[in-house]
Fold:
Amino acid sequence: MNRLTIIGLVIVVVLVLVALFAPWIAPYDVGATDLSMRYLAPSAAHWFGTDSTGRDIFSRVVFGARISLQVGIIVVAVSAVIGTLLGAIAGYYGGWVDRIVSGYVFNVFLAFPGLLLAIAMVAFLGAGLNKLIFALCIIGWVGYARLIRGQVLKVREYDFVQAARALGASDARILLIHILPNAIQPLIVQASLGMAGAVLSEASLSFLGLGVPPPAPSWGVMIEEARDLSTLQAAPHALIFPGIAIALTVLAFNFIGDGLREYLDPRQRAR
Amino acid sequence: MSILRRLLILLLVVWTVVSLVTLLIELVPGDPAVAVLGEQATPEQFAQFREKHGLDRPPFFFSFPRDDKDQRHFVWHGADNRYTDYWRSLLSGDMGLSFRNDRPVSELILERYPATIELAIFAMLIAIVIAIPLGVIAGTNRGTIIDNIASVVALLGISLPSFVIGPMLVYIFAVKLGWLAPSGRFEWSDIVLPAFTLGAALSAILTRMVRSSVIEELGEDYVRTARAKGLSERKVVYKHVLKNGLIPVVTILGLQLGVLLAGAIITEKIFGWPGLGLLLVEDGIGKRDYRVVQGCVLVISMTYIIANLLTDMVYRWLDPRIRVG
Structure:
């Protein structure tokens, strides 16, 4: 395990703890506005300062971790389960399922910018946390399906799978007990990178006003609110802290993903 | 992959995109006519609006409308419906009228398209100018401090989203230093901040690519030969290694052109850059002008798909080994 992976793991652990204990960590109410307290610079009372309506930025960044992780975990979990299921079925059985999944879905989805599809879906469905998660799952599962299909195609031919089949094991048993455990490693890498992607997409869509609606302390919303010229002039920290939060989170999951990939693929280790 | 197969996939993709943009509009909660005209419009105004935009026609080949008793029934409408309407008008180069100002969507898009392409190309140029030297330096000095610094900078570029980089640049160069305008597209210098913002992530990805490509090529036999015949290290790197090492980079560049177009949506919003993305977000989604949304999504996707196709062709041309396969 290299140093960056460990840094990534530490950041993620801290992030999870912050999200879990947000109500105890955040010193102020995330929604409490106080115009007499607006644009305060970082201080002992307000660690990250206050924003254009006098809300405590530290508290909002802390609660923002909840939204980011919630979206990330749900999107990755749902996408991974659907993707694994369809990818495994397509890879193992082939036939018409495979023709649809790998022949049509892979080619079409990969020929399409994912973010644009998510934007289009939310544009028509309307903004909101659930719709955002739904849209990200729709674009997310394809990557997992492709990965698992490739792995299954490879592992399917191994001797121990042939042996299991010769012993009369059922398809379900072969898939679950013999093939999937051998295909799971790259899935973990993909899931880690997927967390980074989902956190980033949530923030992007919220920034565009297509995700979590404004009073909620999504990091993307906070940045959108902090970027008008008068706020930038008076309180650049309102932009910087949520920005750092997003960057650290994305960086951490990318570190973990990259580190795991190198760890699992010895050929890359030397590089 | 054969040309025929590629074409078939291309057709499938186009069909999917058009179907998506025509069918997604049916999912809009509420009535688009009410969303655009407001609750207080008269029934005549609603009827006129629906007729003008073809919204009075059946949505698809079939539908499940509610009857008087609020029960849903299957109704077959035949080939004369909104879905085929859209196809028919598309094939004659028409994307419908804007719900808001009755201007043809194709006209609105043509007005904005050059700004987006300009932004994407400048972003790419900036990325190349940063990434190739940085990647080569990192790759040829592998494991040194320079390499580590380049890697960290690259990672930062990948992890910092454009909507963080963009406003920060605005803060530094527009608010603090006052060198550049915070938004708009009036002076030639107005493209600097948006292009840098959009190109930052790409330059980071490219730096990493160039670095690992250079490292890989440096281990090849021809490099040893070139060195053995006494070429300077400079010539080895720039004449031999870079030439071969850039092949995968070209692919990434082409694929990333599409990503840049999608990413331009966010960058254009940050800087008020009047391109397709701003048209989509502000005029389309913001004002619930779904015809504009349809047109923008369609054109951005098509540009993305065509960019990928061209990349593939350039790649084949560059690397004859792939041509056979």
